[in-house]
Structures are given as C-alpha cells and as structure tokens.
Amino acid sequence: GQNIDQPTEMTATEGAIVQINCTYQTSGFNGLFWYQQHAGEAPTFLSYNVLDGLEEKGRFSSFLSRSKGYSYLLLKELQMKDSASYLCASRYNNNDMRFGAGTRLTVKP
Amino acid sequence: DSGVTQTPKHLITATGQRVTLRCSPRSGDLSVYWYQQSLDQGLQFLIQYYNGEERAKGNILERFSAQQFPDLHSELNLSSLELGDSALYFCASSVGGGLSGESPLHFGNGTRLTVT
Questions:
Q1: Nearest Cα to B104, choosing from B91, B116, B114, B95?
Q2: DSSP 3-state helix, strand, coil percentages of chain A (rounded to 5)?
Q3: How far apart are CA A88 and CA A72, in angstroms?
Q4: Terminus of chain B with fewer CB atoms < 10 Å: N or C?
Q5: pLDDT (tens digit per residue) in B89-103
Q6: Of residues A4 and B102, which shows the higher confidence score?
Q7: Closest partner CB to B43 (pick from A44, A48, A99)
Q8: Mean pLDDT across chain A, nearest whole number?
Q9: Separation CA B43–CA A97 (nearest Å)
Q10: Given B99, B101, B108, which is nearest A42 (Cβ)?
C-alpha cells in the first residue's frame, strides 16, 4: 500500500514554531506535497519536495528525506489564521497522489 | 480562487438514487482527479483522468464511475447511493499527467453530498 502517516492533532502558541511530521511508503515515490485545508474548504498547495533537503517559502518550510520516507512541514511565527488541517501527500510512479488523514493544528493566543 | 469549478455546491438526495457531479479544470490543465472526503477523514483518491483517458484508479467503488470529455471537463457519477456515500467530493486539476515534476493539484471548492 501507500500509507501516509501524520499526527492527528497538534497545538501550538501564537508566535511559536511547530513541526508537523509525515512518513510515507518509499516504493515508487515521485514527490511530496503539503497542503493546507481550513474546515469545509478546499485544500490549497503549500510546498513540494522531490529531492532531499529543505525548501523554504516565507514562514513555511518543508523537508524531505527520501531514504527514510520522511518529511516535515515547519511553520514559524505562528498566527491564529494558521489554525487548519495540514495534509501530507505523496505522488507515486503509478501516477496517483495519496493524502494522509491530515494534522489538525490549533494555534492558541 | 483556484480556477477549478465544481457544480453543484450542495446535493441532497435519497438512498438508491443516482447523481452526477461536474468539474471544470483550470484553463490549460489536462489532468483531473476526484477525491472523497468524509467527515473528519482524509482525502480518499478515487480516480484520475489525463487528456480524456483514465490514468490512475484508487479506492473507487463499482457503483461510481467517471469520465473526462474532449473539452477536459469531468463528471463523477454515483449510483445506488447509500448513507455512507455522504461526503465532500473534491475535484482537482493539474497541468501534467503526474508522472514527474512539480505539478501540484489545484482543488475546486467541492460538492457536499448528503444522502438521506
């Protein structure tokens, strides 16, 4: 299968840093995506990794280790509006994109 | 606005019925993906089309079918509906077929299906 595992829920404080981890099946792997989804809304694209290392985009960064089947999304200087679900998704050579169940992040004042 | 249009936004129907969900991809996107998201659940991949042809299949029930038309819009048909089919159905599109490259999915706002 192509299981993707990420924590169900996380809580952090406004202004802090939070790291959301994701593990995935490596067989046939062809790219790792992170999406943000507010309740009842469409997921929106945040980041993409296909090579090992860190990709930085403003307050958000994403890291990938292909050999370990591991990625994380790092959110800095948390804001209340960052409260949302964060979805890890991996693309495979059979051309489908599989999503994890999402990590529900709550940012508290 | 992602540029992906889904209709209708809401659909309420009875068990045993059949419905059709429609999706227009972003201009220039050749791939269309369908996902099902039940309450507090992750996105379940159903099926993908690329330029009119089926490219990948996920956990799609036999009661469900889809197609992509020459103008690239797609329809998802759900038949013999059951209570458990109540969910948000998302359509997403991307430029490429997904075999390689940074080609993120752009999601529509979804169709909320309620089966009573």
A1: B95
A2: 5, 60, 40
A3: 9
A4: N
A5: 999 998 866 555 567
A6: A4
A7: A99
A8: 93
A9: 10
A10: B108
Q: Which tokens sit at A11?
A: 């809580």
- Identity of the amino acid at B34: W
Other C-beta atoms closer than 10 Å to the C-beta of B78 total 24
By mean pLDDT, which of A50-64, A93-107, B62-76 is the weakest?
A: A93-107
- Residue B5 predicted with pLDDT over 80: yes
The contacts of residue A88 (CB under 8 Å, 6+ apart) are A4, A6, A20, A22, A24, A32, A33, A34, A71, A73, A99, A100, A103
Q: Cβ–Cβ of B48/A96 closer than 8 Å?
A: yes
Give pLDDT tens digits for A51-88. Answer: 999 999 899 999 999 999 999 999 999 999 999 999 99
Q: DSSP letter string over A35-64? A: EEE-TTS--EEEEEE-SSEEEEETTEEEEE
Cβ contact, residue pair A93, B43, below 8 Å: no
- Judged against a pLDDT cut of 60, whether residue B52 lies above it is answered with yes
Q: Please give the interface size between A and B, counted as residue pairs whose CB atoms are below 8 Å apart.
A: 65
Give the span between the Cα atoms of A62 and A46, in whole angstroms.
9
pLDDT-derived band at A91 (thresholds 50, 70, 90) equals: confident
Q: Is there a contact between A91 and B33 if contact means CB atoms under 8 Å apart?
A: no
Is the confidence at residue A101, as pLDDT, over 80? yes
Helices (H), A1-109: none
Please report residues of B whose CB lies closer than 8 A to that of A42: 2, 4, 90, 107-110
